[in-house]
Amino acid sequence: MRTRFSVFKKLLVFVVIFSSSSFLSAQEKVKEATWIWYPGDFEINLANQMQNRRTERDSFFPVFWKTDSPYNLVDFHQVFDLQAPEEITIAVEGTYNIKIDGKALQGFPKKIIMPAGKHKLSLKVYNQASVPAIFIDGKTIKSDNSWLVTYEDKEWIDETGKASDQSGTTWLQAGSWNLNQANLPPSKFALPVKKMEAVSHVKMGTETLYDFGKETFGFIQLNGLQGKGTVAIYYGESKEEALSKEHCETLDQIEVASNSPQDRIMELSKAFRYVLVAPSNGVDIASVTMWYEYADLKDKGSFTCSDAQINEIYDVAKYTFHLTSREFFIDGIKRDRWIWSGDAYQSYLMNYYLTNDSPTVERTLLALRGKDPVTAHINTIMDYTFYWFLGIYDYYQYSGDKTFIKQFYPRMQSLMEYCLSRRNENGMMQGLSGDWIFIDWAEGLSKKGEVSFEQLLLARSLEAMTVCAAIAGEDQDAAKYKDLGIQLKTKIFDKYWNPEKQALVHSYVDGKQTENVTRYANMFAIFFDYFTEEQKQQVKKSVLLNDKVQKIVTPYMRFYELESLCAMGEQNYVLKEMKDYWGGMLKLGATSFWEEYNPSKKGTEHLAMYGREFGKSLCHAWGASPIYLLGKYYLGVKPTAPGYAEYEIKPSLGGLQWMQGKVPTPNGEVDVYCSTKEIKVKAVEGEGKLIFESSAKPKSNSGTITALAKNKYQLIVKPNVEYKVSYKAI
What percentage of residues in the chain have a pLDDT greater than 90? Predict the structure, then answer.
């Protein structure tokens, strides 16, 4: 296995400039040259490298789903109209030829002169080892995502870049990610790092236990290493794990043979708080430090309030999110470090309220999807395939980016057709050979028959496909998916709604409703807005607030449970639940949020999972959901038209005395302050609707307040105007 640090050692001074901005036009992007490739290929290749770094007790642990490879021969071209001849420099990853107006140039030039006038510049690149990529830089001619690319061996195109030979050749806009230095091509990409010290250490004979103060991720460095023998390093998210040489999840073992002091950096990054360093006799180590590895995503959103514990929960959620936001949005930093679609879907939503980094969302979606043909569900999990569709729909709503959907619609369409082909004779999704129906980690949760939760996710996915097909100009597909979605929603309520239980039952087996009612389908149907208002109230009472219905113990599904309650206006209840649940982890010393938390467990029981003493991840992406809940349902900000062209601000204190924060949008942010007496809002784009309740007639310094109903009011928010509303909270 190729070692990670062979790249890292050369790049300690290299800090990747991440793009957290919205998508720019081709004219705006021409300001700086960047490496470009066939869209999706760099992402797939990078995911292969990252996910296959996983080890368990120093053994390679590969993913268990199909992986794809980049296209190894790619054609790049662009048409330019120059007022004067222009010299350009060329960097390429791979073997290549260059053509001007279809005529090949000799050799492998690094610089050429483009003549004045209108001309087409083409490069065909072959690279079997990594991703075919190019970097072109001149005064006006620069490689960017306005270039067109194809993997097909066709060159007959007109000036617009459309296929003119009726061959069906597909030309797409190039992929890019602000890799803007010619001498740092995609194959050399690495996340930035910074050196950090342990906060304390304890000698235990010849061994030393180092404490880095909180959950972290990076490369351990042994300083002043000399002698002859071995060094074992045992990693732990907890002290107990680091001290358990036989059962810790990750470790390193190295050979030492040096007469003079040397520094040694471990080849692979690991997750830990504690590290036990155990040298054999004859080996000396002066000190131990680490290189913290991170994705340089900047916080654009924020939240503070009158409750100190909620502020701490928010801060730890942010830290958890940043630890699990790497090249992609991953699940947890200790065990898997894989891209799981269900985990990633929640990270997308948190991202929109904290960093709003579109490139990481795109990379993750592309890595998860891979390429055709489709042979299995994403991550082999049926529900995770549906989360992928939901992720694309939400990405469009929060970013307004149609280009991504237009370019990758064929991959959406083929994946949806795969799903539809696996319906049973009743037109419902049911687990077939090779399918994993996950839903949640819950004891005794039945996956047999036609599970209502899976049908609900498919219905929502069909709605997403309806929108995406229309954007891609595939009107027949849009009509087809719309009809299928309507039919499926009708079936769901015909088959699963039980008026006596006032809820959707869990499953349909052997032609009959089961008696079991679970929370999953019911809470999703609330924020999907599939229930009538009467049904919502019934479900809130009979399911969400009913302790007799099996409780949820993972932050993964607590995310959705609390969202459904917030959607029902239960922010006071949810605030208490957040304090009890996430606050419970903090009281146990958590410095990042866990994969699972069960308050009934004691001591080291909290560290075990999957039948292993330290199997649980103590830093898991789905644990950071308060970021999303506080931004969307307390500050109350959400887009109501793609890309925040229109949006809603519906603040809800939920028992807080005051709160304030920012929610990032593609071109700025929405600022919100709310107390029991005053609301202040300001935004930089779009048209917003501030909707609030007041027991007294409100007043505003600007705009016109309109009464919507008794004690309910609305104020239209225009860009770059600060609104101050005096009101009396109910």
Answer: 92
